[in-house]
């Protein structure tokens, strides 16, 4: 009965709670459209709104384009409750399907909506229309064009480029480097990705997971593009620095004509099939000219470049003697914040200073690094009195204004009252000519010299020559002999490379299994299967003493058979290797990772119990 009562109350209050939920963000009305299309290529134009509209005003005409369909309206809505706070999000999308008629540059007109009595209008977006020959053959963008495929990879069908926002900078000034893939074919993935070492730069990698496929035109051809890597770089030395080349292997899908003359093949797939082909791509090195900072840097300048502000003050303006306090300095702004270190702070001599504590809150974005670094200087005031803390100075170079800027805090007065616990706290001026730091407690520093007979006597006999001396000597000799025998055996075994590899095979495999388990926990499918293959092939290479380059499934089967491994275990091990090779690029293989991992670990354990040497 009570349960039914609660259910009825929940049904009554749920609509009220949903109605009173505030929108997670202010209304936003945007245009989503590819920035480059080909003649006679259909594409989608979307107007998206993150609120419930009262009305929608569509454009009356789309110059340069034919309207094939639209507008069609779609709606999505979600409600989430986090820590008792309920948020609601809603999205309305108005979709058109357009067709470009002629080559040129055209503008998508704006649309408008009304939300809560207020009108929101999208911006006009330019679109470049190229010849039909420049149309890509892939389908990675949002275009509705059906992929055409190709029989081979052209010279310019896939390429990578690096874009930098500056090529002439000052030492310490941030540079953004963006690595972008350009493709006109369908993509399956990457492998052997190698980013530059960025010698001479401090680097910070940015998250590129939010980047989506876009379209760009290069030499009259349309490419589907995506950012594959982005870094913030800070040059650490002046001169000519280079962003070294970026290398990767791209896996593309191409369509080839089947040699089979079967009528069934021709009926179902036109006698063609899709193959995956790899292509090596790389970028040319990019030169960055780094200039020394101008002369005339202020005293204490430590290389900070950007735009900053500073606050500096003690936590409290009054303390008791022998109590702890903290002086805090906070540097905020944008620039090379991670490279800013603690500033120099001068405290009175009677203050005991401790290690500086550094905290920071930094945001790494394509626009740069912004946030703050905070330095806390803990100290203990040992003597009462009135003290003055000198101002803190911070200097930086502003590349926008091309000048140095020096920030100074205020001087602070700190009052130290007598120790509230009654401890000894010498006051200033107690002894003429001495300050409180020079006062010594002589009764405790130097003790009175004793006069008279020393009264020395022998407490124990010497160890040398006693029975225990010879027992310890024999024991040390026995330990040395045992160590010598063990070391000779250890050196002899290590000289046998086959035996060493055999013994270490299990340890190496377990280390790689742990790395694969981490990838599995992060749901990184491709990295998981790559690490599993390295573990399985490497284990067999060490166990059978066969180089990995010469290792095949046949000689694995033969080597395990010679070592009396059961045939069913051998077959299962070969099957696991085949499953890993197949699953690297299979989107449906993520659910097999736990089974493959558990089976591989079980088989390795079985092999260790069977193969002793």
How far do the termini sit from each other? 72 Å
Mean pLDDT: 77
Q: Report the helical percentage.
A: 10-25%
Shape: flat
Supply the helix-strand structural class: alpha+beta
- Quaternary state reads single chain
Quick one: how many beta strands? 31
SS element count, helices: 9
Low-confidence stretches: 12-24, 139-150, 427-444
Structure description:
This protein is an alpha+beta fold. It has helices at residues 2-19, 263-269, 442-445, 467-495, 497-521, 525-544, 553-562, 567-583, 593-610; strands spanning 29-32, 36-38, 42-49, 55-57, 65-82, 85-100, 104-108, 112-115, 118-121, 125-130, 158-164, 168-170, 175-183, 186-194, 201-205, 214-218, 221-235, 239-243, 247-257, 272-282, 286-291, 306-314, 318-320, 323-335, 351-353, 357-365, 368-381, 385-389, 393-398, 403-408, 412-417. It contains nine helices and 31 strands. Strands 11, 13, 15, 16 and 17 form a five-stranded antiparallel sheet that branches. The radius of gyration is 37 Å and the shape is flat. It starts with a helix and ends with a helix. Residues 12-24, 139-150 and 427-444 have low confidence and may be disordered.
